[in-house]
Amino acid sequence: MDAHNLATLFGPNLLHKAKGGEYEVETVERAEERKEVIAVVQDMITHHDKMLFQVKRFPTHSILKYFIRVYYLLECINFNFNLSETG
C-alpha cells in the first residue's frame, strides 16, 4: 500500500471530530474535512523520518559515568556508615 492508501484507511480513525449521538449522513463539509485529514496523515506517513520519532542524541557515556560515580559514592558512604555503627 502506498502512503495515500494508508492515510485513507487510518486518517479518519486517527483524526476526527466527535460525533453527536445520532447517526448523520455525511455532509459536503465532512467530506472536505476527510480529504484534509487524509492529506495530513499522508504527509505524516511520507515524512515519518523527519516528523515522528526523532530522539536527540545525548552523551550516554558521560551520563553512565556519572551514575557509576554516584553509585560508588553511595556505596562508600554506606560502607563508612556501617563501620561507624559496629566500631
Keywords for this entry:
mainly alpha; 4 helices; elongated; 2 domains; 71% helix; 87 residues
Overall pLDDT confidence: 76
Structural class by SSE content: mainly alpha
The helix tally amounts to 4
Percent range for helical residues? over 70%
- Uncertain spans, ≥5 residues at pLDDT below 50? none
Strand content: under 5%
Shape: elongated
Query: Could you give the count of β-strands?
Result: 0
Please give the alpha-carbon distance between the first and last residues. Answer: 74 Å
The total domain count is 2
Radius of gyration: 28 Å
Main beta sheet: none
Order of helices and strands: HHHH
Descriptive overview:
The chain is an all-alpha fold and 87 residues long. It has two domains: 54 residues; 33 residues, no CATH class. The protein is built from four helices and no strands. The longest helix is centred in the C-terminal third of the chain and has 27 residues. It is elongated. It starts with a helix and ends with a helix. The mean pLDDT is 76.
Question: How do the strands and helices of this protein lay out in sequence?
Answer:
Elements lengths: L2 H12 L13 H19 L1 H4 L8 H27 L1
Helix pairs in contact: 1-2
Short description:
This protein has 87 residues and is mainly α. The protein has helices at residues 3-14, 28-46, 48-51, 60-86.
